Amino acid sequence: MSTVAEGSASVSALRSFCELAKLDHLIYKFRVYKVLFGVSQERGSDFTDHTHCRLGKWYREGDGALHYAHLAGYKDIDAPHAAVHRCAFDAIDAHASGDTAAMLKAVAEMESASLAVQEGLERVVASGEQSPALLQRRRESEAQSR
């Protein structure tokens, strides 16, 4: 496979994962809203934290950490990603204790953090798209060091 094709494949893999991460977080938030609207009996303990969801694993120990940590936007993901999960827990806890004001505040913060995660993921993809050969060279050098 040519370097250009390999670079394009690397960018496509990155784009696909980032889109999957966005969908995962949409589903995660939907589950939170189902609890808040009384449609689900899930509790905070039924939800993963930011280190154990697919994005968290990718970011900390998976392909994200191995291949994409050098890209613009990557480091911008962690803090808002943690906030999405923390605020989800806070919203569920506030709902369970009947504190509507705290629940609404946590939901607003969750949504704001979620947008920041999406923006960070888009910056990572845009950075990879600007230099697909860099992605491929980095993968090759890491494969040789194993």
UniProtKB/TrEMBL annotation:
<dbReference type="InterPro" id="IPR025991">
    <property type="entry name" value="Chemoreceptor_zinc-bind_dom"/>
</dbReference>
<dbReference type="Pfam" id="PF13682">
    <property type="entry name" value="CZB"/>
</dbReference>
<feature type="region of interest" description="Disordered">
    <location>
        <begin position="127"/>
        <end position="146"/>
    </location>
</feature>
<protein>
    <submittedName>
        <fullName>CZB domain-containing protein</fullName>
    </submittedName>
</protein>
<feature type="domain" description="Chemoreceptor zinc-binding">
    <location>
        <begin position="25"/>
        <end position="91"/>
    </location>
</feature>
<feature type="compositionally biased region" description="Basic and acidic residues">
    <location>
        <begin position="137"/>
        <end position="146"/>
    </location>
</feature>
